[in-house]
Amino acid sequence: MTVAPLTPDERAALLPALAGWEPAAGRDAIAKRFVFADFIAAFGFMARVALAAEKADHHPEWSNIYNVVDVVLTTHDAGGISHRDVAMARTLDLLAATG
Ligand SMILES: C[C@H](O)[C@H](O)[C@H]1CNC2=NC(N)=NC(=O)C2=N1
After folding, report:
1. From which domain of life does this come (predicted)?
2. Which residues of 47-83 are buried (b: 16+ CB within 10 A; e: fewer)?
């Protein structure tokens, strides 16, 4: 499904409001490092995100080392950051906070 990338105005309004999310190096994407108490907390977060991602049909790129989960969000179908990434970033922040 084709999704529109964010306009410059939308970027300026939406992206700075995403706490801890930064531009990913070398590509049009946003990235955040989530740090948990231990592996099982990190993996629990990933399990909750997996369910939300499947429901939204929007999937993170991520890696996990013990208690750290590095996430990159972009929309391949848009060729860059879209509203779907902003929505998913908010969902991830919520799921990381609620445990
Ligand atoms: C075919 C499938 O629906 C698409 O590839 C969806 C699935 N998940 C996706 N996830 C992400 N992050 N970007 C996409 O463009 C995307 N597109």
Report:
1. Bacteria
2. ebbeebbeeeebebebebeeeebebbbbbeebebbbe
